[in-house]
């Protein structure tokens, strides 16, 4: 059996090595390292894949979120509603721009922002909502867009973990996540579902004016070279990364299918276990399984059991991860933003209970069998 990894980037690369090597060499030969043709091609391909009018490539997913908030001209003190149960980047950029992060609860089933909690958190200062499609499951976008419309708020989707996911509306129509809000943001960090071989990100919008603004902010605030209209930043996707992503985007649906197959295996192995809840799949979202995350419950000291499982699996050479061990509102980073004033019981409850198992496109049945049997072996001893 191949060693088990949380994400097996090497194995995935080997399957497309010839194509990728040739594409990278092409870029080297062209020497168009910045803004080469593959960058524009990728933007066009992403727009048609997501069904969105504009794609603005940038340097990483964190920049994508920051540029989105800058382009919307959010001002210090403006309130931005975000989940606390997320990767730090989502909330960090809010603080970086001196906006006020307003942390709200997630739905414990989907791990995504709870629309009812958003409603309660809205004040006259609220300007934007940042739903995160966590672990690859879409947030309840129909409800979120309705709230945004009622209160005239921007919606910035953090789609870093869910590119390729579909959101289905109650009327049966569907859209790709990242193409629903005012702006969508994603990351091409190597371990993401659509990952490059370094850093990368992209921003999506259907709004022509906003697209110009996003491009300007990402490019030192200029539309015409050396004439800087606003304070911007420098955030570009390298041509080499775009060339790699062009190849991998064509495989994204296959990659998602492979992840879903692994998830189905896990689901079946853990079904009906009294202490394990497998990832929920809401009718409005397919799940692209960036992570496969279990919720443990019913143990006297559940955090201890969860941490014990994590450590014991490591001894068996099976990696597992706690995403995330400290929710945003409890991070020291946010102490001066009043993070500790937020009482988020569901977020804390989940933080003690979640554990993510290896999830990638190259998992083999033998590996899955081994992982699941070891998880069950440990839990059945508790
Ligand atoms: C990875 C990730 C980001 C940031 O992406 P980078 O490319 O690493 O900057 C933002 N939000 C979420 C939810 C992520 O998982």
Can you give a write-up of this model?
By secondary structure, the protein is of the alpha/beta class. It has two domains: 9-104 and 111-249, 3-Layer(aba) Sandwich (Aspartate Aminotransferase, domain 2), CATH 3.40.640; 252-379, Alpha-Beta Complex (Aspartate Aminotransferase, domain 1). The protein is 40% helix and 15% strand. The relative contact order is 0.17. The site of pyridoxal-5'-phosphate has 15 residues, from α4 and α5.
Summarize the structure in short.
This protein has 382 residues and is of the alpha/beta class. The protein has helices at 9-15, 17-30, 37-50, 61-71, 88-96, 115-121, 141-151, 208-218, 239-270, 302-315, 345-353, 365-379, and strands spanning 54-58, 79-83, 100-104, 126-129, 154-158, 166-168, 174-176, 183-187, 201-205, 222-224, 227-228, 276-277, 292-296, 354-357.
Our measurement of the CA-to-CA distance between the termini, rounded to an integer number of angstroms, reads: 28 Å
Quick one: how many beta strands? 14
Major β-sheet, in short?
7 strands, mixed
Query: Unreliable stretches, pLDDT < 50, 5 or more residues?
Result: none
Helix content: 40-55%
Q: Order of strands across the biggest sheet?
A: 1-9-8-5-4-2-3
Shape category: globular
Tell me the name of the CATH class of the largest domain.
Alpha Beta
User: What is the CATH architecture descriptor of the largest domain?
Assistant: 3-Layer(aba) Sandwich
What is the percentage of strand-forming residues?
5-15%
CATH topology of the largest domain: Aspartate Aminotransferase, domain 2
* Structural classification: alpha/beta
Bound molecules: pyridoxal-5'-phosphate
Q: Helix and strand string, N-terminal first?
A: HHHEHEHEHEHEEEEEHEEHEEHHEH
Number of domains: 2
